Amino acid sequence: MIARFSRPELEHIWSDANRYATWLEVELAACAAMEEEGTVPRGTAAAVRALAVGRLEPARIDAVERVTRHDVIAFLTHVEELAGEPARWLHLGMTSSDVLDSALALQTAAALDAILAGIAGLRAACARRAEEHRRTPMVGRSHGIHAEPTSAGLTFLRWYAELGRAAERVARARDGIRVGKLAGAVGTYAHVSPAVEARAFARLGLAAESVATQIVGRDRHAEVLGALALLGTAIEQIALGVRHWQRTEVGEAQEAFGKGQKGSSAMPHKKNPILSENLTGLARLLRSYAGAGLEDVALWHERDISHSSVERVVLPDATILADFMLARATTIVADLVVDKARMRENLELTRGLLHSEAILLALVRAGLPRQRAYELVQKSALAAHEGRGLFRELLGADAEIAERLTPAELDAGFSLEHHLRHVDAIYARVLGTTPGATA
Amino acid sequence: MIARFSRPELEHIWSDANRYATWLEVELAACAAMEEEGTVPRGTAAAVRALAVGRLEPARIDAVERVTRHDVIAFLTHVEELAGEPARWLHLGMTSSDVLDSALALQTAAALDAILAGIAGLRAACARRAEEHRRTPMVGRSHGIHAEPTSAGLTFLRWYAELGRAAERVARARDGIRVGKLAGAVGTYAHVSPAVEARAFARLGLAAESVATQIVGRDRHAEVLGALALLGTAIEQIALGVRHWQRTEVGEAQEAFGKGQKGSSAMPHKKNPILSENLTGLARLLRSYAGAGLEDVALWHERDISHSSVERVVLPDATILADFMLARATTIVADLVVDKARMRENLELTRGLLHSEAILLALVRAGLPRQRAYELVQKSALAAHEGRGLFRELLGADAEIAERLTPAELDAGFSLEHHLRHVDAIYARVLGTTPGATA
Amino acid sequence: MIARFSRPELEHIWSDANRYATWLEVELAACAAMEEEGTVPRGTAAAVRALAVGRLEPARIDAVERVTRHDVIAFLTHVEELAGEPARWLHLGMTSSDVLDSALALQTAAALDAILAGIAGLRAACARRAEEHRRTPMVGRSHGIHAEPTSAGLTFLRWYAELGRAAERVARARDGIRVGKLAGAVGTYAHVSPAVEARAFARLGLAAESVATQIVGRDRHAEVLGALALLGTAIEQIALGVRHWQRTEVGEAQEAFGKGQKGSSAMPHKKNPILSENLTGLARLLRSYAGAGLEDVALWHERDISHSSVERVVLPDATILADFMLARATTIVADLVVDKARMRENLELTRGLLHSEAILLALVRAGLPRQRAYELVQKSALAAHEGRGLFRELLGADAEIAERLTPAELDAGFSLEHHLRHVDAIYARVLGTTPGATA
Amino acid sequence: MIARFSRPELEHIWSDANRYATWLEVELAACAAMEEEGTVPRGTAAAVRALAVGRLEPARIDAVERVTRHDVIAFLTHVEELAGEPARWLHLGMTSSDVLDSALALQTAAALDAILAGIAGLRAACARRAEEHRRTPMVGRSHGIHAEPTSAGLTFLRWYAELGRAAERVARARDGIRVGKLAGAVGTYAHVSPAVEARAFARLGLAAESVATQIVGRDRHAEVLGALALLGTAIEQIALGVRHWQRTEVGEAQEAFGKGQKGSSAMPHKKNPILSENLTGLARLLRSYAGAGLEDVALWHERDISHSSVERVVLPDATILADFMLARATTIVADLVVDKARMRENLELTRGLLHSEAILLALVRAGLPRQRAYELVQKSALAAHEGRGLFRELLGADAEIAERLTPAELDAGFSLEHHLRHVDAIYARVLGTTPGATA
Q: Which chains sit next to A, with 3 or more Cβ pairs under 8 A?
């Protein structure tokens, strides 16, 4: 992933240095397990650890690989250069994929752990803003059209809840990917026993693939990419919300404008929601990576290696991007400038039409058939919409309505507070039972 | 979905008749809940049920919709035609999406239940074949190249395990989609209380969306489509395996040939793996539907309806197709003609090269540095590969090898049984602890 | 494709009846070519034509297929039932795919022809609206933020131009798909000569695949689906434009509201851009189908049939949908209610800030360094944006600006007409040189 | 894109240094055009060129961008640092996207030019191998099953032809992307005239967008990514072909094995088609990028910038990858080790069944109804397939066949040469009329 969209922790996880270091940890865990089983001399792993851990030179490994065209052999050659004789006990009875897949599991799980922390941070920001705007009236819109009043806080609360579902999916994918194998060339434990695998994985914090081929099942990796794509949609939802709020005609919220930031090379007054637009695009990338992941699952016989080139690119790219997006989204949400006054103004834009359903229901409860009530309300609503009067007054002037509803009953239908009366109940089921508490 | 790839149960779930019937159940559950709350006269739901359930005419509803261009209004109009006065109490305070989304949840969950049953059936077939071929020797292949011996049963067992993971994802997606909302136009319960929603959903077996907008979160539907795409890859893996087994040069297994079936209009002898090829293509469709689902999640403000046209097509298409694929895959697996003799023959194709790693390891254990052992084994292996002798004999003729291994030790490296010694352990962790038992 | 999104012409093209009729035309064209070559008795094709064309019964063919599991054999069996002895000369030396692929080419090309006509219709509607609003001032927006004035007509003109590019791609894909093959089981013309193919295709209006396998190259079909996906984005662009125009706070245009149409079951006043939202979703489907098409291209050896199940679903679905979308988009554009007054009002929303760049440039031209000019303009702009005065007045009160620009020069920077002075030039290069003419 | 899959020329095109250099060329071309128009002092562009071209420091620009959060402003600031006073005339009346989009067009077109050269190289390799194996008999396979004999050269020739279609699409996309705009903030030429744009683009080799918004239409970029995805499928087809040829049981061709290359860390004899498997995966990446491109087309009003983050990643990644894939595929094809003897052996595997259609046709031509002939041939074919005799002998022993065909006529049906008699005609239409010539 390009530097612009990368952060250090994730870059480190996917660096050559960390990849080789993780390979070495897998080899050492396997070696230690074999020592316990008695197939390798006691002390081998410790001896290699002392001489090789922290001293691997990626450039040297790459140079060897250019000759052998085989990365694991190049790696082992280099370890032998560093650690000498004991190193020949490494990798005994193992196949390259035993190392590669087990290490990839560790790297991917580490990346997902960082992402889960990022989600938690973004959720915390959403919860704070949700509390802040628990009772901030805002017009609710469906189809881009004003519908009924709502609370601005509910939007933040919804993001919090959606991100919670996204986190569950990422956590499950992380559990699913934390699976390695030391089962040999075709998964039969031909030269390494299941017991060695079990011992080694206890050290590494991995589970063993239940039925491995040469590799671990690629549905696990596809699930990771799918979970990240869905996480991307949750962030995209936030970004889209901010972009709509910030558009000139709406103006209900806007991204904080950095000191020294310039909005446009030509139009100095412009404050554009560029962070949110940026995230909107990046969500598309996460979707596209998920598509590649789904093509990697079905492989030939006991494995073909077509998945590998995809994973070399897509697992780093998708996790690095997701991490970056979470950080950026957290900034956007935490610093978002909400304009409560503008929200109030916008509530008045349709001059009462927002309350049409309340009137409709009052008429039905007063005994009018629904279809007739609908027609009556629609008549006044369209007239008001076309500027032929205020909705409240047009309703009051309708004789058929006047038969059913008193002026006071009509007024009651126009109450704003009415719409926020269940907000606390919604908050309670998401954040916990006590108003104000966040979970 | 076209008739060729549809089965009756799923077609029924997505039929107009069932959709409208499900809408009516949602309306009646809401109505009954309102009766209990006292906002609707007692007996209303029962009265409407008596006159409308089982009598809905989809064609009539469609005719009304052509005028109103609104499906739920058309539906309610028709229900009022059938049930008269009491029907005007239906939908009171509700918005169309309260009905649509809650009903869609019920339909989708029903479709996923059928799919879960289909997975169970396919897994049972895989388990049976796995038991049957627990100890059938077969060459394991990586990169399409013979690698080491394995058991044919392990392939079936792997499919069983992969399908188990697919089933877990589908089951979670089903739990995630079994969520409705009766929260009104923008999710504030403006005209229907959370209590009514809770009562109604207790009847319907739905959970309530934690923070609804006008609709339920679309990440739930995207997760369904993603889980089906991943299920598709598990089926694709089976199909790809059969296609490879059946190719002329391999011939280790083939799809059962139906009575009267014709393989080719031009080549009467041909038996083509057309069912498996067909499934390979259909898995691509499931992938593509998942992509559309991911674009549906981020919507404008409290909802835009762009997701709806996608769902009208893709939720039926994806679930119908998955159901069809499972049935077809079950037939393929259950009836697959496995040629154990051909498997044995193929094991001999490389005249012993399969055992190269065993020799390599014996040399290392006998004290040779790994890289040197590798070179020695590679030398004889390439010679054998190029037809310059049998691998066993070339090894025996190598002076450097003879220094380390006796002829008896060399022979031990060529044992086939050696490779199957951990098969029972693998079966035990997948199917249960007793050999022969399936879970 | 579901009936809701299908129109009769395209449904007919993809009907069983038309498919079988097209197969018969391919068989008859090949037969007639063989007659001319002398390998089939003169008059055979005519005899079969007389007895079979117009009499094929799809249900009968399907019944035979259920036994043979082979559609072309079932079809030939049925033709023999209808036409008797002469029919045995049909298909002589041909393979099923000779018929299937050549017929599929004809069906797909017919579907694309209909789509090209649909594009032409939509472009005509765009051109009319472009002319109508050639000089209708509207605020131009980037990032959803008001930028500079533009003409509303330019939006329609842009749609016209984009659709022109989409049409070129569809036309090229149509030319690319109008390719069949009568080259036998592996493309070698083993039993039918290239000359017969050439004669037959001259009758059918097809080109011959340059190097066929058992089938025609599937890159052709993928290109079709890709061109349709790109057409979908052009329609999506229109739909997105309308949705933005129609949102309550913008209100510059809206979809025409049908007589009897109901906007919302709960909110009678609402006019929602549901047609455009619908098209937005359908564009996602076209994208997803293109993804499946790309997976169909690389096949095993001289063909595997995995592409077939995809094509059975996706070629009808994508073309039917594209045709439907074009018709719907044409209605939207043709009937769109444009509110010129509201466009004027919105131009005033930012109280002059739209003209910031003109002032910036005037300052630069008056000799101020660009960065300094930018800072000066930004200062007044942000002050105006925050409501601390009108932009024009704040600029006028700035001493440093006053040094460079006279009040008259400042006023000139606020001219609306200035922005439309090149509109005719843009129109001329798209629609032709004479203002008012459309191409 | 990671270094492993990148080559220097493409890396340079997308480097920061080249991007900024290209921006500067666009600014200078615009500046020179304004000089000619008289709005900028004569000699400005030359003065800036002398001081800034070749001296841009990307790190300095990036540092400024971290403050301004605006890349073009940072760039202009840096140019002014280098070139002083004349530089303030740059960018006059222009908007950032005038520079960005015009430069992106130049970079993308350069990348596509390199790719077109790569396709030409790969096609040349295919043509050479096609000539070499014009008459090398090989079994043709459909569904993975032996069908009829063909020539190995036809496979190379088909790749050549498919790549030709891919090249046409890339060339068209290159023409489509070679389009810039100097039309200002909303495409109205508010501050720069169409004439300046025309003069500047004549220098740069760009066409002007017909109806620009703030940017050039993104269908152009999506078409580029779509063309690359289709190019990817052509390469994938080659890779898949090699992988099938190389599998142990087929063995008809294999990737050349580099000196020092190691096939497997565990199995020294293995030669795996890893380059081809690698390309198979990379083709998936190209597909996935195309999906992201299609989501970038429909934007808000006169532009939103969501496409930008996608393009920053995907345009470099997709073009760099395509370039790499072409180079790798060229190596594979040029060096592929074809085993003609093994091809001959495999032709014999089905002991004559390949000729079943020839016999079927002979029987039909001898007057047997097709369905009856099919049944007779199928009977002997299945018997032979099941090892109950040789196909030729079983046919000879069939009384009903003996009534129609003499032994000599039966023998004629088993001729191998027969199948290659139209090969020259196919070559002629692809490579030119004279056998041996390549186009």
A: B, C, D
Do residue D265 and residue A289 have CB atoms under 8 angstroms apart?
no
Task: Please report whether residue B99 resides in a domain.
Answer: yes
Q: Which of D12, D264, D306, D309 is catalytic?
A: D264
Contact C150 D233 (CB under 8 A): no
D41 interfacial to chain C (CB closer than 8 Å): no
Q: Are strands D207-208 and D179-180 parallel, antiparallel or unpaired?
A: parallel
DSSP B10-59: HHHHTSHHHHHHHHHHHHHHHHHHHHHHTSS-TTHHHHHHHHHTTT--HH
Please tell me which of the candidates B147, B247, B356 has its beta carbon nearest to residue D144: B247
**C54: amino acid identity, one letter:** G
Separation in Å, CA D259 to CA A67, A229, B195: 7, 42, 76
Tell me, yes or no, whether D266 and D132 share the same domain: yes
Q: Are D58 and D104 in the same domain?
A: no
Chain D nearest C-alpha distance from C422 (Å)? 7
- Taking an 8 Å cut-off on Cβ atoms, the answer to whether C269 and A243 are in contact is no
The pairing of beta strand A253-254 with beta strand A337-338? antiparallel
Closest CA–CA distance from residue A60 to any residue of chain D (Å): 15
Overall domain count for chain B: 3
Q: Are residues B323 and B208 in the same domain?
A: yes
- Is residue D57 predicted with pLDDT exceeding 50? yes
Is D430 inside any structural domain? Answer: no
Q: Are D277 and A304 in contact (CB under 8 A)?
A: yes
Chain B 206-245, residues with CB within 8 Å of chain D CB atoms? 243-244
**pLDDT tens-digit map of A244-271:** 999 999 999 999 987 666 656 556 557 8
Q: Kindly state whether D91 is in contact with chain C, defined as any CB-CB distance less than 8 angstroms.
A: yes
- Find, in chain B, the residue whose alpha carbon is nearest to that of A223: B230
Q: How far is B422 from chain C (nearest CA, A)?
A: 35
**Spatial separation of the C-alpha atoms in residues C153 and C161, rounded to whole Å:** 12
User: How many whole angstroms separate alpha carbon C110 and alpha carbon C174?
Assistant: 9
Q: Between C267, C268, C357, which is nearest A267 by CB? A: C357
Q: Which of C59, C92, C125 is the last residue of a domain?
A: C92
Task: Examine the domain organization and report whether B77 and B101 are in the same domain.
Answer: no
Regarding whether A202 and A183 lie in a shared domain, the answer is yes
Residues D120 and D259 in one domain: yes
With vertex at residue D162, the alpha carbon angle to CA D157 and CA D167, rounded to the nearest 5 degrees, is 120
Residues B366 and B385 occupy one common structural domain: yes
pLDDT digits (tens, 9 = 90+) for C183-225: 999 999 999 999 999 999 999 999 999 999 999 999 999 999 9
Q: Which domain holds residue D401?
A: 353-413
Q: Do the Cβ atoms of C141 and A267 come within 8 Å?
A: no
Instruction: Respond yes or no: is residue D264 known to be catalytic.
Output: yes
Q: What is the CATH number of the domain that holds C61?
A: 1.10.275.10
A36 and A163, same domain (yes or no): no
| Interface ipTM | 0.94
Task: For residue range D137-167, list pLDDT tens digits in order.
Answer: 999 999 999 999 999 999 999 999 999 999 9
Cα D46–chain centre separation: 40
3-state secondary structure of A180: strand
The whole-number mean pLDDT for each consecutive block of 10 residues of chain B, a chain of 439 residues, reads 97 98 98 96 97 97 90 94 93 94 98 98 98 97 96 98 98 98 96 96 98 98 98 98 97 85 60 96 98 98 97 98 98 98 94 88 86 88 85 93 93 89 97 56
Distance from CA of A97 to the nearest CA of D (A): 9
Please, what's the largest Cα pairwise distance for chain A? 101
Longest Cα separation, chain C: 101
Which CATH number belongs to the domain containing residue C151 in this structure?
Answer: 1.20.200.10
Mutate: best of C92, C192, C285, partner B, most B CBs <10 A:
C285
Please check whether residue B304 touches C, CB under 8 A.
yes
Question: Which one from C102, C151, C210, C264 is the annotated catalytic residue?
Answer: C264
